[in-house]
Design a protein that fits this description.
327 residues; alpha/beta; TIM Barrel; two-stranded antiparallel sheet; 40% helix; 18% strand; ALAD; lyase; heme biosynthesis
């Protein structure tokens, strides 16, 4: 047969050949592991919709962090689940709030671990929305002051990075101003710059006890059908002082991740959200999928799309698998 063609398979003909030519890699350092800190003592309660994810009281937190550090994970993101809530989310910006106490504790015991503080009000408000509510409407501008106060209190507690997740207009500018005025101009902002009003958040709202008590979040989170809007949102946040750009969710928005990476010279973070996690965990528990293979492929896809870091509940699992593969 006298034909000409290219033999691409030459570069795939052994494990070693494939390994040395692999373009995209996962490392434990790529992951930010979410922690849900709760009030009380001796509490390690599994979130029903998120197998392997727990509510942890502070007396059990250090043991969890020791495991995380031993796996080579360099960063966590702290979410707080307070016992008391009110209409303005007071516990979010209280200097003795659950995230503030958890941050102080972690930084004292593990000073080299990067602690990211989620900066929002929804876990702390009795109505479950990310801002001040008046006559059924979520007010943008009055909310900004509370977000700035929350960020400053978290920075005072020792947070290395502030991660505002509320999607209020001007939230990065307000937080940047508040941090700078309080002497925290060195603290970076990891903005949830591109956050969609997604159906993939259900298990997180179970974990954070943050389901809205009325309506939805579509007036401040983005329409999943929109692509150009993502670039407008990211551009605003960069201009207001964001140092990192988060795209959330990740799996259904890989095109958006690539757009953001191509258009902005800032680290891009994917949030591999609760629904993405729980779907795979449920399928794996039923024996329908190979969990390790599917998770690794999914995260490689996110890295290939352009992310620098991934917030993921799979961080500990993947770090273990990577260690096992190296042995």
């Amino acid at each position: 047969m006298n034909i000409e063609f290219t033999r691409h398979r030459r570069l795939r003909n052994s494990d070693s050949m494939r390994s040395i030519l692999r373009e995209t890699h996962l490392r434990a350092e790529d992951f930010i592991y979410p922690i849900f800190a709760v009030e009380g003592e001796n509490k390690k309660n599994e979130v029903p919709s998120m197998p392997g994810v727990f509510h942890l009281s502070l007396d059990l937190l250090n043991a969890e962090i020791e495991e995380i550090v031993s796996l080579g994970i360099k960063s966590i993101i702290l979410f707080g689940v307070p016992e008391e809530k009110d209409d303005v989310g007071t516990q979010a910006y209280h200097d003795n709030g659950i995230v503030q106490r958890a941050t102080r504790q972690v930084k004292e015991a593990f000073p080299e671990l990067v602690v990211v503080a989620d900066t929002c009000l929804c876990q702390y408000t009795d109505h479950g929305h990310c801002g001040i509510v008046e006559n059924g409407k979520i007010l943008n501008d009055p909310t900004l002051d509370l977000l700035a106060r929350t960020a400053v209190s978290q920075a005072k507690a020792g947070a290395d990075i502030i991660a505002p997740s509320n999607m209020m207009d001007g939230f990065v500018a307000a937080i940047r101003y508040g941090l700078d005025e309080a002497g925290f101009e060195h603290i970076p902002i990891m903005s949830y710059a591109v956050k969609y009003a997604s159906a993939f958040y259900g298990p997180f709202r179970d974990a954070a006890h943050s389901t809205p008590q009325f309506g939805d979040r579509k007036t401040y989170q983005m329409d999943p059908a929109n692509r150009d809007e993502a670039l407008r949102e990211a551009q605003s946040d960069i201009e207001e002082g964001a140092d990192f750009l988060i795209v959330k969710p990740a799996l259904a928005y890989l095109d958006i991740i690539r757009d953001v990476k191509n258009n902005f010279n800032a680290p891009v973070v994917a949030y591999n959200v609760s629904g993405e996690y729980s779907m795979i965990k449920a399928a794996a528990q039923n024996g329908w999928v190979d969990e390790k293979a599917m998770v690794m492929e999914m995260l490689i896809g996110m890295k290939r799309a352009g992310v620098d870091l991934v917030i993921t509940y799979f961080a500990k699992d993947v770090a273990r698998w990577l260690k096992e593969d190296q042995q």
